[in-house]
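User: I'm curious whether this sequence folds into something compact or stays loose and floppy. Could you predict its structure so I can see for myself?
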Amino acid sequence: MANTDYIYAAARIRSKELQCFSGAMLEQLMACKSYESVLRLLGEKGWGTGSANQTPESLLEGERNRTWSELRELVEDMSVFDVFLYANDYHNLKAAIKDNFDPSSGADIYNPNGTIDPELFRKAVADNDFSALPEKMAETAKEALNVLRETGDGQLCDITIDKAALIAIGEAGKKSQNELLAFYAEHTVATANIKAAVRCQKTGKSLDFIGRVLAPCDSLDVALLGKAAVDSFDAICQYLRKNGYEGAADALEQSSSAFERWCDNRLMEKIRPQKYVTSSVSPLAAWLLARENEIKTVRVILSGKRNGLADEAIRERLREMYV
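Assistant: Here's the prediction. I'll summarize afterward.
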């Protein structure tokens, strides 16, 4: 679609943005005295089915599915949003391989929001025929399946697929020729690399192993990041500070949850200007990301209230809202 074709869709998104949760709404949720009262307030705001038996997981997944459904009503060609769905595709590939290798592993949980029908992954792995998958994904599937069969190492299988997913996301962002989608892709790959580097450092992984994990991206030299991970946690933070990721380093030194919050807040800061754009796919992409951030934040509140966490501990994990 040309940018002019998004004018109507962007106008419709403006009205949907009015329904997004603000910081004030988060305060209302936080003021609830119990987990059950949070659920009731969410129901009053139109979340969920209203069923007394609805679980928090199904409520949040229902909101995610509703978001995609509403987006499909506005956009004829949904392929422009594939960059947001590739992670789900590769998750489903991983689930199909593990479920085929070990049906008792519980890997039969598939994400319905992808670009490929999960059943196609099941069949491809069961038949050992990946010709129906996109070429690069088929190559990844063969490699990951061979790794699992030859070594029985589920972790090596995972990192093979996870790295391929990041590469696919990065390439999709570049091909989009859209500034916001390109930023989202680069941000996703870079922050995943940072998390992986820290995880590898804490578990004492070798440079060779780290090289298998980190995916290429433009804003970080993964070779230098890998060497820093072999050295120390401080070396990782020092490298990040020298390369435009001071906020990431500061957050990492606080906690992993602080880093996750920094990642989401950085994305929200980037997309806020899209509230004033009238003819582009960017406002739609921004709304989609805003809804995902909203769902994630509600999950934090529900989990905190359910587990009896102090309000201060919950607030430390809350994300900034889009509106």
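Summary: The radius of gyration is 21 Å. The chain has 16 helices and no strands.
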